[in-house]
Design a protein that fits this description.
- The termini are close together.
- By secondary structure, the protein is an alpha/beta fold.
- The strands form two sheets. An eight-stranded parallel beta barrel has the order 1-2-3-5-8-9-10-12, surrounded by eight helices. The protein has a two-stranded antiparallel sheet with strand order 6-7.
- The chain has twelve helices and twelve strands.
- It has a single domain, classed as Luciferase-like domain (TIM Barrel), CATH 3.20.20.
- α2 packs across α3, α6 packs parallel to α7 and α7 crosses α8.
Length: about 300
């Protein structure tokens, strides 16, 4: 299992902060650095800059919403990031949420499974520098992209439900999960996507699991902080379904907290259920917790 850092500077800091965060992850030996795309800086644009400043670490988005971005347009942007970074980009995409797409952006969230299937049918050939010819219900695309310096890019999907996992297995390179606990990963996510990939005669999918992590001597305070910091995710239907499947009241119940040894044991155990990559969402509150949390994950690097 590879280890990465799920950053927050793209939303909370400056572009220089994003570069510094990614550089720190690379210097600490992590395999990947993931930037969410929410309501701060555009993640792909920021990663293009990171790619010129930070030379080795894999760069990924976690995740870019699909509905507001035509698959040809996002493919063109990704090829540019790939060329700027020496071909280190993995594009993470997701549907976002109905409240965001319809209530905030005024777009239709209709037929999300069909949307993802058509989106990937356009995006995946383009990601491999191939010409796409696709006529669907929503997308009718006959085009290519020629971005010198790009060898292409990987695509993973924030797929949670069974239908989404099956579409992902059929067309994309893997999945990236959030608010999905180990029991749900082991009993639902991983067997569903791997079985589907086998049915479709596809390569074994990449399975990237992101979870909150904090080394602390005060689990009660850390749990209270996690409940507050990550509260919104417990209210969104897709994440709520995964938390319910886990038997978790909220995101704090799936946070990995405790001593360095406890945290390392729980993170390392994810490899045994088939997780290929772990992305740590660090949420220490004090300088000591922040340093110890990073040290715990670094201690797992081989």
């Amino acid at each position: 299992m590879k280890y990465g850092i799920f950053g927050g500077a793209v939303n909370d800091g400056t572009v220089d902060d994003v570069v510094a965060e990614a550089r720190s992850a690379e210097q600490d030996g992590f395999a990947s650095y993931w930037a969410p795309n929410i309501f701060g800086h555009d993640a792909l644009t920021a990663l293009a800059i990171v790619g010129r400043e930070v030379p080795r670490i894999e760069l990924g988005t976690s995740v870019v919403p699909t509905y507001p971005r035509h698959p040809h347009a996002i493919a063109q942007q990704c090829h540019t990031v790939a060329a700027a970074s020496g071909n280190r980009l993995t594009l993470g995409i997701g549907l976002s949420h109905k409240v965001v797409i319809e209530s905030m952006l005024g777009m239709s969230y209709d037929k999300p499974v069909r949307h993802l299937r058509e989106y990937l049918n356009v995006l995946m050939p383009l990601s491999r520098n191939e010409t796409v010819h696709f006529d669907g219900e929503t997308y009718k695309v006959h085009a290519n992209i020629s971005a010198k310096g790009s060898n292409g890019f990987g695509v993973v999907v924030a797929a949670l439900g069974e239908q989404m996992l099956r579409v992902t297995a059929a067309l994309a390179d893997g999945t990236l999960t959030w608010c999905t606990g180990p029991a749900t990963l082991a009993g639902h996510t991983i067997p569903t996507i791997t079985k589907a990939a086998d049915e479709f005669d596809r390569p074994a999918p990449r399975i990237i699991a992101a979870l909150p992590v904090c080394v602390t001597t005060d689990k009660v305070a850390a749990a209270e902080r996690a409940a507050k910091v990550f509260a919104v995710y417990g209210t969104l239907p897709s994440y709520r379904a995964m938390l319910d499947r886990e038997g978790a009241a909220g995101p704090a119940d799936i946070a990995i907290m405790g001593s360095i040894g406890e945290v390392q044991d729980r993170v390392a155990a994810l490899a045994d259920i088939g997780v290929t990559d772990f992305a740590a969402v660090e949420f220490g509150a004090t300088p000591e917790e922040i340093a110890n949390t990073r040290d715990a994950i670094k201690g797992l690097l081989k």
